[in-house]
Amino acid sequence: MSSDHHAHNPGFISKYVFSLDHKVIGVQYTVTSLIFLFFGFSLMMIMRWQLAYPGEAIPLVGGWLGKYLVDNNGVLLPEGYNSLGAMHGTIMVFLGVVPLAVGGFGNYVMPLQIGAPDMAFPKLNMASYWVYFAGGVTMLSSFFVPGGAANSGWTAYPPLSNIANTVGTYPFWNGQTIWLLAMVLLITSSLLGSVNFIVTIMHLRVKGLTMFRLPFFVWAQFVTSFLLLLAFPPLEAAGVLQLMDRVFDTSFFMPSGLVVSGVVQEYSGGGSPLLWQHLFWFLAHPEVYVLILPAIGIVGEIIANNTRRPLWGYKTLVYSVIFLGFMSFVVWAHHMFLTGMGTAMSTFFQTTTMIISIPSVVILTALLLSLWQASIRFTVPMLFALSFLPMFAIGGLTGLPLGLSASDIQLHDTYYVIGHFHYVVAPGTIMALLGGVYFWYPKVTGRKMSTLLGHLHFWPSFVFMNTVFFPMFMVGLAGVSRRLWDQTEYVQGIDVQGWVRMSSWGAWGLGLAQLPFIINFFFSAFAGKKVDANPWKATTLEWAAPSPPPHGNFAEVPVAYRGPYEYSVPNAKEDFHPQHIPDSQVV
Amino acid sequence: MAASAEDVRKSIKSYLLVFGALAVLTVITVAASWLKVSVALAIFIALVIASVKGSLVASVFMHLTGEKATLYWVLIISAFFFLLLVLLPVLQTWETSHLIDQVKP
Amino acid sequence: MSSELLPHTLDAHPVTGMYNGKFGVWLFLASEVMLFGALFSAYILLRTHGDFPTHKETLLNYKIGALNTFLLITSSVTMVMAWASFKLNDPGKGKLYLWITVILSCAFLFIKIKFEYMHKIHEDIIPSTSTFYGIYYCMTGLHGLHILGGVVVMLYFLTVGSGLWNKNQQQFTNRIECTGLYWHFVDLVWIFLFPVFYLL
After folding, report:
1. Which residues in chain A are closer than 8 Å to B91, comparing Cβ atoms?
2. Residues B3 and B41 placed together within one structural domain of the fold
3. Total structural domains within chain B
């Protein structure tokens, strides 16, 4: 069945801008979110200057940043530093990694991997991209309103976030309120997307593709969609409540008798700042797994393909991912040990946190064992996937002391925390996502990305990722708080200034290391080496479609005859058995 | 639910019955709020009545009784997380305020 | 628009027992459970936290609330009757029921705004008066927006979208069923909002 439910001769606008095709939407998501990733990263490169050389004028860009970020000499203002920090976190998480992992890879690859002609709801799919886009534009616009962008951190903890950004035409036209409005849009976009993903995976699989024949990546997307579906609404509710607090002067998060700068606040009171933290972390902990799971899925695909053997313990991996998704809803208050939680609740949450580390270790072990005695092809995507494993492990293991309340109380809000979660998300997830770009690029464009530029991208990135984030553990263990504009004002910050500078130089190096990627990404689209439909000799269904796949994806609807990773089957003609080729033709 | 015309005709009767039940229960829940009982009991009564009404709407109007296991699983998971979301924050604040009460002079 | 539809646009999937739209709406409703669930959680936390007026007689007028409850329950019945009529191939009756649903929901909104919100605001009772009124305005307001959304969708199927009935009856009936699912959920939320705010 070739599905041509799109217009027959679509014009440019309906083909590339308001397209209903999941592949175009996937590419739109990918490109937009890569731009946001780079933008969010640039904010951090500016912050790193202030940290490495406190109080010195920012070179190159200092004069361009405007009065909300820098003073007349081009030195970063403390408020500007806070703005950049809040926006870096928000942009990286909600506008960069999630849209890339779910919106980009999920949209493009998942329907192909299940043999579907499109997503179940193409119009909803388009809507989810454009709502995301609107959310992104709204978020960026907050840099230009009076007082600058939101500066209460990406967690937007009240009461600070309720009373911050109140200069100018409070209550509407300011950074924090716009942050909330943008978040509502982004959450809506994720909701639409997750509904679409779940229905597509459940309903549009081709004949023979049972749930346990699904590629691991599809499973990861499936669980991720449930996390998005059920974890995001509480943040939306919290966002609405904070919006009420800011716009209508309610006091949901304002405790009675709050004193700010020596002045008693005129609120009716009775609110609870902890309410925000509960609702926020109810989203934000599952969100961590939203960031990680698609990346693990990608790594699984790349490893199976490049080791030329089945993933070790496919079913174990699937069950672990499901269990991980489920448990991620029960651990959120380990972010709140320092709020004066009672011992019973602390014990509960640290127990669940220790439990959730088990499936994570199982997954990592299974992926590691997949490498055992394999004849590995060290392709560029494989390099990224391999680098993911140890760096993600560092991220995971350094999380354990944070999950135990006794040690967390020492480490909370220090650079150690920053080092920990960045190791999970940046050297972990982002490296995996970059690997995914190299892996599926031939499917999207019909051309391969340059291997030389790929190596020039990978090796410096790998080195600099560690240069940026490893020193943070030392800085954090020395006791430097994570939100300081100038840590050298404190005695514990002076001794570790060398590590801080190393981190900063690493960040700028990492920025430079992305240039080969940017060139490669755009240049290869029309100058890369042309390849056939299955250049990696892979088994899953997306490689059964032509490259790039036409509308409706498959020339004829494929049928799945076997599991996803039948590599190196004994007595076979070739070392891989694609899912769509009947047994009679492969043995 | 792929219902035949005959099934639909039959279910219309149950729709009207449920409508009657919902109207009566609304009256009962208002009447129950006048009872002079403790706050905890009043909350319990009101929530029980609301839950009965809610399940009538869900099972009959929304045809939940005719659905298959997939949907039940989705809803059970949502309901479970909903309970966590409601209970754990309340338990946490309760425990904290309890501890604060103990230290107060 | 469509020469060929995606699989399971009309027919139920053998495993889930639902067509695409219905499954999608149910998943959306699952997320709505979490949205309103978070707000109910906020309500409970604020109420147990202190500084939360609970002297019910003076806060809200339960008679208006009960009237509105009745209107919404009735609209739920007319909604399901509309679907049943379309299912029984009687579009005239189906449209009539749908119009009644629209009128009932507009009456709900009118009463809510005119006799409750406006009245309270006139008495200088606004969201910032206390956390009770804050969460009251917030939750009933959000619920009101859901009602408004439902009305817009119904009006769409009564006017611009009604042509689909002639092209594909089953698809049209399915869409009415999905609208109905959403509508009953909105009714269901109100069934909980009413005692929580007006009676307890």
Report:
1. 345
2. yes
3. 2
d(CA A154, CA A450): 36
Q: What is the homologous superfamily of the domain A104-374 according to CATH?
A: Cytochrome c oxidase-like, subunit I domain (1.20.210.10)
Name the least confident of A21-25, A243-247, C52-56, C130-134.
C52-56
Contact A329 B81 (CB under 8 A): yes
Residue pairs spanning A and C at CB distance below 8 A: 147
Chains near C (3 or more Cβ pairs under 8 Å): A, B
List, for chain C, all residue ranges whose pLDDT scores fall below the cut of 70.
1-4, 50, 54-58
Predicted pLDDT of residue A8: 52
Average pLDDT over chain A, rounded to an integer: 92
Q: Which of the two residues, A569 and A23, has the higher pLDDT score?
A: A23
Domain limits, chain A: 104-374, 381-531
Residue B104 is predicted with a pLDDT of 66
Least Cα separation, residue B99 to chain A (angstroms): 7
Inform me whether the pLDDT recorded for A533 exceeds 70. Answer: yes
Residues B34 and B12 in one domain: yes
Please name the residue of chain B whose CA is at the shortest distance from the CA of residue C194: B50
A456 vs A10: CA distance, rounded Å: 39
Instruction: Please return the burial class of A20, using the count of CB atoms within 10 Å of its CB with bins 0-12, 13-18 and 19+.
Output: buried
Lookup result for tokens 């690997």: A435
Q: C88, B46: Cβ pair inside 8 Å? A: no
CA-nearest of A108, A13, A58 to A553 is: A108
Tell me, what DSSP letter sits at residue A496? T
Chains with 3+ CB–CB pairs under 8 A to B are: A, C
Q: Could you tell me if A231 and C125 are in contact, meaning their C-beta atoms sit under 8 angstroms apart?
A: no
**Torsion sign, CA atoms A53, A56, A57, A60:** negative
Q: Please say whether the beta carbons of A577 and A586 come within 8 A.
A: yes
What are the respective helix, strand and coil percentages of chain B, to the nearest 5? 85, 0, 15
B40: which residues sit within 8 A by CB, 6+ positions away?
none
User: N- to C-terminal Cα distance for chain C?
Assistant: 52
A-facing residues of B in 10-39 (CB < 8 A) are: none
Does the residue C2 lie in any domain?
no
| Residues B54 and B8 both lie in one domain | yes
Contact assignment for A342 to B92 by CB distance below 8 Å: yes
What is the domain extent for residue C184?
20-51+60-199
What pLDDT, on the 0 to 100 scale, is given for residue A148? Answer: 87
The token duo for A391 is 């760096």
Residue C37 and residue B33: Cβ atoms within 8 Å? Answer: no
Domain membership flag for residue C4: no
Q: Is residue B3 domain-shared with residue B47, that is, in the same domain?
A: yes
Asked if B29 and C34 come within 8 Å (Cβ–Cβ), the reply is no
Domain count, chain C: 1
**B51 and B87 share one domain:** no
* Whether B14 and B28 share a structural domain: yes
Does one domain contain both B97 and B60? no
Q: C35 at the B interface (CB within 8 A)?
A: no
| ipTM score above 0.90 | yes
Q: What is the pLDDT of residues B24-66, one digit of tens each?
A: 999 999 998 888 888 889 889 999 999 999 999 999 999 998 8
Which CATH number characterizes residue C71's domain? 1.20.120.80
B59 and B91 assigned to the same domain: no
Residues of B in contact with A275 (CB under 8 A): 89
What domain range is B74 assigned to?
68-105
pLDDT of B5-30, one tens digit each?
Answer: 788 888 899 999 999 999 999 999 99
Percent of chain B with pLDDT over 70: 95
pLDDT per residue as tens digits for the range C151-195: 999 999 999 999 999 999 999 999 999 999 999 999 999 999 999
User: Which of A272, A282, A342 lies closest to B85 in CB terms?
Assistant: A282
pLDDT tens-digit series, residues A375-417: 999 999 999 999 999 999 999 999 999 999 999 999 999 999 9
Q: How far is CA A251 from the centre of its chain?
A: 33
